[in-house]
């Protein structure tokens, strides 16, 4: 079975020769949108749910000619960008809304960590149980590696930043800032 078989209607699959898909007259009777069956859980082309949400947004255009389809997608994206820009202007902080909520949650949970200053902007953080981590706020690094991997201070880094009276939002990677959002 070809991976394309589930994405084309039966007539398209038959006219394509049952797998020999060429660029000749193939009926593109998509079942759920742009090449992905809605709810298939199969060959998703983006982060989880993005392709299905996009398919749902253009579902009314999938049986239109290509030019009309592209115009409808362009209009959808323009309206979405305007809506997102308006949401962004309402923000009172300098980081994206999901990251802001994540950092606020970590601030509440950081009370289980106990930082001790070691010098040269480095701290030893004792967590729950026997675990210990070294946090370097100058290099935005923690021994758990979460801060380096995602660009947002981990719970140990948040604990250190709060104990040294620093704003955690100033230590978040530039890609999460409002101007890049």
From TrEMBL:
MF annotations from Gene Ontology: zinc ion binding
InterPro entries hit by this protein: Znf_PMZ (IPR006564), Znf_SWIM (IPR007527)
Signal sequence annotation: none
Keywords: Metal-binding, Zinc, Zinc-finger
Keyword Metal-binding annotated: yes
Start and end residues of each SWIM-type domain: 133-165
Stored Pfam families: SWIM (PF04434)
Entry protein name: SWIM-type domain-containing protein
Organism: Dipteronia dyeriana
